User: Fold these one by one.
Assistant:
Number 1:
Amino acid sequence: MKRSVKMCSLIILVSALGFFPGSTFAGSKVFRVDHDLYPYYPSLIRWNKSNAQFTSPEVCKGCHPDKYEEWEGSVHSLAFQDPIYQGELNRAVKAVGEDIARQCEGCHSPAGMVTAEIKEPGLAGLGSVAAAGVSCDICHSISGITHWETPSHEPENGSFVLTPGVETKDGLVLTKRGPLKPFDNCGMGFHKCVESPLHLKAELCASCHDVYHYDAHFPLESTYLEWKHGPYAQRDIVCQDCHMVDFPTFLRAADEFRKPDRKEYRHFFNGANYLVYYLAETAAKKAGDEKKAAIIKEKYEMAVKRLQSAADLEVSPVYRQGRLAEVKVRVKNIRAGHNLPTSLTNIRQMWLELTARDEKGNVIMTSGMLDSRGDLPENTRIFNSDGMGDNFHFAVDPWVITAFSRHDTIPPRGYKDVYCGLTAPKGVKKITLQAKLRYRQADQHVAEALLKAEPASVDLKKIYGITKVPALPIVDMVVKQVSFSTTK
Ligand code: HEC
Ligand code: HEC
Ligand code: HEC
Ligand code: HEC
Ligand code: HEC
């Protein structure tokens, strides 16, 4: 009864404001939305529109081949083609209406969104700028940010300004912004160079790496805010210092808080998403492009190595009245500049698998073991979050989630302690405990649901040779084995 009253009032509110599918969203009761400032709402991108067009990455490649090779096959280059994204985008549009696509595309392919080249989910008929996702000309056309004017007064949903060029009395001039001091003929007549301090700051990345609910403005992904409130921000170690360098330079920046030298920056944008590289490598092989497949394989390996460097485990027995009562496992975030895991915390899974054995190798306790269907048991200690909708029920989709009912991630340089009851069976004198910190991109069933929802132009069989979603690969981030006595 109560529920239907609520539904009725919602419908009245919606129609009184005159909003219907195809129009703009109303904004929540709490947050004021300035639709003149944000013409692409629910994306908060602004575009200084002129006759200066966006340029495809293949043109930049002509003069910046090294940058192109680093960026090619990166998660940014795949942000729009990513089949996991396309499946979810398709579901979003079906559930909420086509206007929500502007929010998603505003971060996954900003140029394709503002130019309205992208008309519907899928890849059909798209030119090389739209399909290239977060390409060169997105970042290097960012001329400003509106982080304080947004509905939540934080960076969110693409709150940056794009200015690919300007019209002058001498004609069109493309302007590309970056870290270099001005010098003559920078850009060799193709573009003007503008020195941009913003490009050396985390705020360049923030507008896309803080994702908010499209209209209720609940922070769904808060990588930037996690970073800002942590120790790396205070020592000026920014996103670029860990994600735009090679692996050893990342380790140095994270361990010693030492900023990379100017010449050490690379366009890898490598994170934890080894699954997306795995799929892209399969696609490149299927298309016969062995060179690209090899480049992507290196990125896959870097993502796995990065995950394996992010955490550490400490295992210790806890005795009560001289007898073993529990084990304590301390899970430490040692190198992620933000919480671990970060971003899509309600989808990603990072969990502890424990196995205790006696002297003869008999298993006396387990926790967090996957069953034959790929499911985790109820009592697994998992570090991530549970989303809930307006009705306070569990939810997975970002257009439904307006709060978290559980949020259990580990802050940068912080830790969480896990206690697990463990008493020794009679006669057992020594126990060996194996603790594993394991990671996968998503629950098997969630991944299957997304990949089942692909738009027609994302043909998994044709592009990837996939007919059935295989078991999602799992990475063991840390494995520790410790033996201890059952009495003290
Ligand atoms: C996600 C944002 C992003 C994308 C995408 C991106 N860049 Fe950059 N680029 C940066 C940042 C940040 C810097 C500054 C890093 C540093 O401190 O050197 C930079 C630096 C540069 C520089 C100047 C630095 C130098 O060493 O000469 C060039 C040239 C450049 N990028 C070209 C490109 C090209 C070409 C592409 C596409 C293949 C590209 N960028 C894609 C963010 C981006
Ligand atoms: C503010 C920018 C932003 C907006 C808006 C946004 N995303 Fe994303 N999305 C991201 C970032 C950043 C990641 C990567 C996070 C990570 O790797 O954990 C991501 C990751 C994803 C992934 C996971 C991809 C994978 O391979 O695991 C899916 C699916 C996705 N987004 C769908 C959507 C949909 C659908 C919408 C619109 C309803 C949307 N996103 C809106 C920035 C955005
Ligand atoms: C005709 C050759 C040419 C093309 C095409 C070209 N650039 Fe450049 N660009 C240069 C040269 C030369 C420099 C000087 C520095 C260097 O060599 O890295 C430069 C410098 C830059 C810088 C540094 C600006 C600064 O002030 O820090 C950025 C960023 C940049 N280019 C981005 C791009 C992007 C993005 C594209 C594609 C849209 C592109 N360039 C296409 C020749 C070119
Ligand atoms: C225009 C929006 C945008 C900007 C600006 C942007 N990103 Fe991203 N970034 C994305 C999206 C979207 C994804 C996820 C794509 C996907 O998973 O399909 C992503 C993915 C990533 C990943 C890979 C995550 C993983 O799971 O492996 C890293 C690392 C990353 N970005 C770092 C950066 C850094 C560093 C900057 C600033 C220099 C930056 N990004 C700026 C939109 C952006
Ligand atoms: C001190 C180094 C460091 C800094 C600084 C840092 N990161 Fe990360 N980042 C990592 C490590 C290590 C991982 C892999 C573990 C993880 O997923 O958290 C990672 C993972 C990620 C991922 C992938 C998450 C996923 O679920 O796939 C994204 C996206 C990302 N970082 C973005 C950023 C952004 C944006 C910033 C700046 C606001 C930033 N990072 C600052 C080290 C760093």
Number 2:
Amino acid sequence: MREYKIVVLGSGGVGKSCLTVQFVQGIYVETYDPTIEDSYRKQIEIDDKVIDLEILDTAGVQQFTAMRELYIKSGKGFLLVYSVDDPNSLKELERIREQVLRIKDNSNMPIVLVGNKSDLVETRKLTPQDGIEKAANWNCSFYETSALNKSNVDNVFVNVVEQIIRREETKTNGTSTGNQASVPPNGQGKTSNDTSKSFNTISGVHKDTKTDSANKKSPKKKKKRRCTIL
Ligand SMILES: Nc1nc2c(ncn2[C@@H]2O[C@H](COP(=O)(O)OP(=O)(O)O)[C@@H](O)[C@H]2O)c(=O)[nH]1
Ligand SMILES: [Mg+2]
């Protein structure tokens, strides 16, 4: 069985634990001890292959401890989470992302930028466009999520796993990975399912920044994936 480590990073209070618990257990925990750093296991099935995910929900990102460095070193994919009502939390991700790239010694990692708390209407300070533009700079995927409404929660985890698989497949095929799919210049996130997969159990608005134009650069046809959250 394949096993991947996913690391969830971001400032305190952005909803890392709520997103993780919502994905793993399907429940919304209103208050979660902010100091708890724990790992969770969850299986998903992609193309009839069961994948075992170990998800590390981090806490207190201020100091990168030796333990944290170890986790990041063994992490295959990263969710960088901010909250749409807190511009500082998006800013903070710049530093966090740099740390990840430094520790991994790789500028082309499977990363999903996650703008959480999309359900907040009154107190929202960042638009989807803010996330789309940041993801374009970083050449990574982007979703707005709500752990509260379970909107796009599965999608962020599935997307990062798909990035990992794609990377492994290109490695096996011996071709260059190149950069990750890019954001279109007009900044429009897609609102339909990603071209690479169909979800059995996933709903919600898809704000992946990947585009078909990015896919067109590759002469190879992308495989349709079937994915189930187990
Ligand atoms: N409105 C709203 N609040 C959320 C959402 N996700 C988390 N929260 C709240 O944000 C606070 C911090 O969440 P938590 O997951 O503990 O943040 P962490 O420090 O990043 O792990 C909690 O009080 C949650 O109830 C969300 O999607 N929408
Ligand atoms: Mg937490």
